[in-house]
Amino acid sequence: MNITFSTPTDEELRSGELGRKLRHFNYGFVGEYPEQQYVRTNARDESGRLVGGLRAYVFLYWLDIDVLFVEEDMRGTGLGSRLLADAERQGIALGAKNAKLGTFEWQARGFYLKHGYEDYARIDDYAPGYYLQLMRKRLVAAPA
What we know:
This protein is α+β, with helices and mostly antiparallel strands. The protein is built from four helices and six strands, in the order H-H-E-E-E-H-E-H-E-E.
């Protein structure tokens, strides 16, 4: 069999064909589920400066928080809590039942614990000399 390997073109990436193939395979095991949906929020101050933001996505009913960042001079103001709560609300609206994330030991494990996240795994020496803490939380919709 003559198989070639190549870097996908921009058009091939945009088409989503590979992801569709995997999704259809998965359907045979877990049933149909929505395509991955993004949660993206920027926070700017009155001068327009980007002071924080969040990047996440919902896949298979999980909100996967990839990036939550708050500028150092804005930490302790509640901005991170607001970003996280907004992402969780958006995730729930998109069908998420749980949330997960990873945080390095020098980052924000205590912040996430305060917001109801719990440890479920740790990868030692993920960055040389530092661990990555994996955390999760059951999401519950706020009462109407």
